[in-house]
Design brief:
It is built from 1 helix and 13 strands, in the order E-E-E-E-E-E-E-E-E-E-H-E-E-E. It has about 150 residues and is mainly β.
């Protein structure tokens, strides 16, 4: 699957009426464009990046977080918790959020539906390799049992 990023043109804090988007092009207010950023993904549902980090993190519904680095998809997943994730209909790995101090503490939080269909939010830490999170570092932050699938 191909992931495209939408860039919406808007003013900035200087009052400028254009926005610079990846590739150095400018857009006027009220316009947007799509840019291909990666291919080879499976059911991507979310795209984000930690503050100040040039990498893009793509959440795949089946339970993997992938990295787009320097314009290329990194082969190994950043985090793979697919064995813990149910990915039926509206279920799956749905999001990742990085701690505001991620650069110094390496904390990230994931929201997913477990194999019983219940909602889980867990904290993970990045490993010594900045492109790989430590799956054994999982700490449950919130567990919500769901009455229906």
């Amino acid at each position: 699957m191909l992931v495209a990023a939408a860039i919406i043109g808007c003013g900035d804090s200087t009052g400028s009426k254009t926005a610079v988007v990846p590739g150095g092009t400018t857009k006027t207010p009220g316009t947007f464009s799509l840019s291909d950023i990666a291919s080879g993904l499976s059911n991507p549902v979310y795209l984000t990046a930690p503050t100040g980090d040039s990498r893009l993190f793509v959440v795949e519904k089946a339970g993997r977080i992938r990295i787009v680095k320097n314009g290329s998809l990194v082969a190994a997943p950043f985090l793979d918790i697919s064995s813990k994730v149910s990915n039926g209909t509206e279920q799956g790995l749905l999001s990742v959020a990085f701690h505001p101090s991620y650069a110094s503490n390496g904390f990230l939080y994931v929201n997913y539906t477990n194999t019983s269909g219940d909602t889980r939010i867990e904290r993970y830490t990045v490993s010594a390799n900045a492109d790989v999170a430590n799956p054994a570092s999982a700490k449950t932050i919130l567990a919500v049992n769901q009455p229906f699938a």
